[in-house]
Design a protein that fits this description.
two-stranded antiparallel ribbon; alpha+beta; 23% helix; flat; 3-stranded antiparallel sheet
Length: 133
């Protein structure tokens, strides 16, 4: 992991107005999400593809990178320029960032998506886009 730092993947960039990537993903992945003037979710419902749990508080959720940034670094993004890593970390066109239960996300750490399985056997977790690693 020589040279790895999450800072090498500028993430949670501004997407539109006051909304950054994190807030945009929360709105995309939730139902009936209402936001305040800073674009933070103040209400809504989210179902985690990790464990099937349903949440109504955004603080119970993490925005996860399907391919963890550390794993991406080990898989070759260390050779990319910062702008390309920025695009990867904020890619809303693929299932790269998605909403999941915070403690389950934290437990998986930076494992390769092919080597970990969420606790929900019939998980609706998105699969990585071709070439995402």
């Amino acid at each position: 992991m020589d040279g790895y730092s999450r800072a090498r993947f500028p993430h949670w960039i501004t997407i539109s107005g006051a909304c950054n990537t994190r807030e945009t993903v929360q709105k995309r992945d939730g139902d009936s999400v209402q936001t305040n003037s800073q674009c933070q979710a103040v209400s809504g419902t989210w179902t985690s593809p990790y464990d099937g749990a349903t949440w109504t508080q955004r603080d119970d959720l993490d925005i996860d990178h399907m391919v963890p940034l550390a794993q991406a670094w080990r898989s070759g993004t260390n050779a990319w320029i910062t702008a390309r890593r920025r695009q990867f970390a904020n890619d809303l066109e693929s299932p790269q960032p998605w909403t999941g239960t915070d403690n389950v996300n934290q437990a998986k750490g930076d494992k390769d998506p092919g080597l970990r399985k969420p606790p929900l056997v019939s998980s609706t977790a998105p699969t990585p886009a071709p070439g995402a690693t």
